[in-house]
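User: quick one, sequence for these tokens?
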């Protein structure tokens, strides 16, 4: 009864579990103080999302004009291990956290990133390199892009955010969220389609930060 009363009154939550605190410390060490932490109210599987401001030109070490945006990073997906396929002998980890590069802090970005982070546990599946997932709806009403594509970070530091952390022997690795058009999705799902699409990203100078107005490359 007392705990329910404290929750209703908006009292501070219980101290973070050790792994969650270690992730928060690692993020702060690598990215500084978050500009916002979107807290999850799901006690069964809490996935918070930390938002950090970033100049992406500086992060990519180029001489172009400033390119300001945000790095959204989940913290809590790796509290559970994904179910890898039976007999899987690859080198991908069952403990993951997701990253999304965005221009602003639209509430739908937080909602959809959290939904994606929890999806493997709802379905008894997993998320890895090159996986595609149709979103329940486009992240913004102004865009037709509604297919998630997961790729390793191209920013070196984001590949190593949790290098010193593990869950039951599984190192915590990161994947970056990208959005595809329906035509791009069809290509990626075809034989050797992912490699062809990655080449298209280079040709079209694909923006690192999600651009809901970019043209489809197909």
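Assistant:
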């Amino acid at each position: 009864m007392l705990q329910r009363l404290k929750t209703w009154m908006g009292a501070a939550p219980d101290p973070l579990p050790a792994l969650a605190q270690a992730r928060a410390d690692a993020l702060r060490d690598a990215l500084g103080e978050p500009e916002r932490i979107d807290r999850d109210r799901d006690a069964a599987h809490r996935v918070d999302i930390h938002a950090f401001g970033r100049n992406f030109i500086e992060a990519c070490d180029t001489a172009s004009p400033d390119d300001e945006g945000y790095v959204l990073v989940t913290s809590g997906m790796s509290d559970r291990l994904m179910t890898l396929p039976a007999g899987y002998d690859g080198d991908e980890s069952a403990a993951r956290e997701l990253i999304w590069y965005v221009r602003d802090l639209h509430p739908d970005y937080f909602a959809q990133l959290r939904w994606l982070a929890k999806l493997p546990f709802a379905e008894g599946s997993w998320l890895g390199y090159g996986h595609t997932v149709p979103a329940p709806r486009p992240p913004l009403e102004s865009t037709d892009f509604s297919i998630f594509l997961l790729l390793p970070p191209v920013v070196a530091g984001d590949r190593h955010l949790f290098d010193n952390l593990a869950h039951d022997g599984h190192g915590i690795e990161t994947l970056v969220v990208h959005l595809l058009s329906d035509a791009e999705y069809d290509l990626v799902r075809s034989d050797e389609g992912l490699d062809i699409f990655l080449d298209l990203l280079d040709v079209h100078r694909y923006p690192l930060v999600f651009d809901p107005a970019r043209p489809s490359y197909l």
